[in-house]
Structures are given as C-alpha cells and as structure tokens.
Design brief:
CATH class of the largest domain: Alpha Beta
CATH topology of the largest domain: Aspartate Aminotransferase, domain 2
Strand order of the largest sheet: 2-7-6-5-4-3
Bound molecules: pyridoxal-5'-phosphate
Shape: globular
Oligomer: single chain
Order of helices and strands: EHHEHEHHEHEHEEHHEEHEHHEH
Distance between the termini: 64 Å
Helix content: 25-40%
Strand content: 5-15%
C-alpha cells in the first residue's frame, strides 16, 4: 500500500468532457434555481467549522464549540423566517424537510398541482389543487376540494421552482385553517429571494434548503409551529430535540446559517437580479415576438424566467446553450437529465408543443450584465438557425 501523501493532490478533472472548456474562468451560469454557487463568506465559515471539528453531543471543549456553532446557525436561520430557534429542525435539505413535514405530519395530505416531487411523492390525493394559466393556485377550487376531500394537511409552495410564480399562501392558509386543515409551505425557492415570515404566512410547517441561497448542498430545515410537531424520519439519537437523530452536519449547518444571515442583509438582491431578468425578457421578446414568458402575468421571483421559444425544442436549446458555455435548464433540475415535458407546465394548461419548447433561466447573487449579453448572443444564433430552417 502506498503511504498517504502529506499533501492533497488535485488530479485533473474531466467531468463529462468539460475539461479544457472555459467553465472555471468564464462560465455563464443561469441555473441558480437548481443550485446557486456557495458564497465566499459561507465557504470561509464552513472551513473554520471544519477546522474546529467536534461533535455537538460531546461534553468536552470541542463538543461545546461545535454546539455553540450550531446554536448560532439556528439563530441565523430562525431570523430569516421570523421564528424562535427552537422551531427549527436541521435536515439534509428541502426534500427531507418536505418528507418529514408531510409523511411525519397529519394525513391525508392534499397538495397543489405544481408542488415539488418531494411534496407530491408524500401527498395522498389523486386530484391535486389546480392552478390557473399563470401558474397561480386557484383559491375557489381549493376551497371546494378541501370540502370534498377533507384532508388533514394542505401543501402549497411559496414560489414555484420552474416559473418563479409566487403563490397566494396567506389566502390559502386562511381557507385551510377555516376548514380545520394544517398548512405546509415549501419555501425552498422563496427564502433568500423574497421576505418569508412564517407566522405572517399562516404556515404550520415550512421547509428551507441552504443551497438555493448561497449555502452548501445537503442541508435544510423544517420549521414548525409549537404544537405541530412532525414525527422524526430518523430515530436513534436525541439530536435536534429528538426530531432528527444522527450527528449534525456541523459545517453544513454553519454554512446554512451564514448564507441565511447574508441573504437577510442583502436588501438589493431582488432589484439587481430583477434588472438582469427584465432586460433579458425585453430583449428576447424584441428578437422573437412569438416568444412567451410563462407565468408572465403573475407576480414572480425577480430572478426567474420560464421562456418558450416556439419551434425550438428544449433539448435543442439546452444543447445549443451548453455548447456556448451557458447553463440553463428545462423544467426542474430533478427532472432534467431526462428532459420530459414538465408537469408544472402541464398543470398550467400549456399545450405540449409550447411546453416542450420551454427553458428556465434563473439568475443569482453573482450574475452580471455580461451573462445577459452572452445569453442574448447565443439566442440570436439559435433564432437565426430557426429562421434558416423555416425558410429552407
Ligand atoms: N422544493 C423546491 C421548490 C425545490 O425547488 C427543491 C429543489 O430543487 C426542493 C424542494 C428540494 O430541495 P433539496 O434539493 O434541498 O432537497
């Protein structure tokens, strides 16, 4: 056996043929709803946490230091959504938080038709609550469904991952509570992008994910109202007030806390990314008047565009933009890789021929004007190709 090297060696990496491309020095990353790069201050905080080490359950000094770091992160995440630190259970991400809230909560569960798969997979009703053509929850149908189906819990996301459409959560909470139904809110895409106030929303449980706001992947939180304690999915330890057994992901939790604090401080985020998104949409519509902005009539997250370029299938678009060094996605990341028509767009009643030409462009904290320019350049070339094809 070779002796372990005292220095870390960094082998050259070729990820699916990406080696040699300009991905590190000059990428155009417009897929921030899939995951957004970890902010430098977050990396620093995580590196410090890893250097300190320690298990928060240990009584010695390192253990106490780790416990203190987790405590501080809990306060930071709590501040982001206006709850007390005890209301937070750290999880492995938004998926686990949604699963615990719903599989470990009161059943049956009725979900809106545009929920993330981690919600739909643990909801019960065949007929989900419908949305209108702009992707907004239909409150009249919701009231009728609650009466007919008599669920114990309703799941409504705060903002949709594919369209960015912001849902009428407060109104849904009032309707649900009137019917004696609890409300779970998936705020994974909203938190860090728009204000999220747990109590003002009327949520009973709410889920968050660090990697959508500049924190690391693999850490999230489930937030619950006192008296609404979801059952643990993981057992065998008293961590997280017994709501989640297992040694805490201390560096991840510290990174999550740092990302939450940075998001709360960043008042200018929506204005910055909104200016980029609005410019991109305006210029695309000028270049291609037949283009369509999905959910464009609704209130949306400032960073998200779901764009239909008729006659250009989303797989063609993804390949074209990828070859130009630009990362965008078709539908949600969880369903990309196998590019199929999005259930969210289907629920909005988008015809298949339009839905199959939809891509998602999502900006983030490090997006720049030059990203818009590079995207528009690539888009012009793509539209010219379409023009040549049509006139051939
Ligand atoms: N909910 C929504 C709305 C999401 O967009 C995602 C991820 O894309 C999740 C939940 C899952 O979160 P995670 O990736 O942390 O498991």
């Amino acid at each position: 056996m070779k002796p372990p090297s005292s220095r870390l060696s960094c082998p050259s990496v070729d990820i699916n043929g990406y080696a040699g491309r300009d991905l590190v020095t000059n990428p155009v990353y417009l897929d921030h709803n899939a995951t957004t790069p970890v902010k430098p201050d977050v990396i620093e905080a995580m590196a410090e946490a890893m250097a300190i080490g320690g298990n928060p359950s240990s009584v010695h000094a390192q253990g106490r230091a780790a416990r203190q770091m987790v405590f501080r992160a809990r306060e930071q995440v709590a501040a982001l959504v206006g709850v007390s630190p005890e209301a937070i259970v750290f999880t492995s991400g938004g998926t686990e938080a949604n699963n615990q809230a719903l599989a470990g909560g009161q059943r049956p569960v009725l979900a809106s038709a545009i929920e993330h798969p981690s919600v739909l997979a643990v909801s019960d009703h065949q007929q989900p609550a419908p949305v209108d053509g702009d992707g907004m929850l239909d409150l009249t149908s919701l009231a009728r469904l609650l009466e007919g189906q008599r669920p114990a819990t309703l799941a409504v996301m705060m903002a949709n991952n594919e369209t960015g459409v912001i849902q009428p959560v407060k109104e849904a909470a009032a309707i649900a509570h009137e019917a004696g139904v609890r409300l779970h809110v998936d705020a994974v895409q909203a938190a860090g992008k728009i204000p999220v106030d747990f109590f003002e929303l009327g949520a009973d449980t709410l889920s968050l994910s660090a990697h959508k706001m500049g924190g690391p992947q693999g850490v999230g939180a489930l937030i619950f109202r006192p008296g609404v304690e979801p059952l643990p999915l993981l057992q065998g330890g008293s961590q997280e007030q017994r709501f989640r057994a297992g040694t805490e992901n201390v560096p991840g939790i510290v990174g999550f806390g740092a990302a939450a604090a940075l998001a709360l401080e960043d008042d200018g985020y929506a204005e910055r990314v909104g200016a980029l998104r609005d410019r991109l949409e305006a210029e695309i519509l000028a270049l291609a008047p037949d283009a369509k902005i999905v959910g464009g009539g609704a209130s949306r997250l400032a960073n998200t565009t779901c764009l239909v370029l008729p006659g250009l299938g989303h797989d063609t678009q993804l390949i074209h933009f990828d070859l130009a060094g630009i990362a965008v996605s078709a539908g949600s990341a969880c369903s990309s890789g196998k590019v199929a028509v999005s259930p969210v767009l289907a629920a909005m009643g988008l015809p298949v021929d339009e839905a199959s030409c939809a891509i998602r462009i999502s900006f983030g904290w490090n997006s720049r004007d030059s990203d818009v320019e590079r995207f528009l350049d690539a888009c012009r070339r793509l539209l010219a190709r379409r023009q040549r094809r049509e006139s051939a």
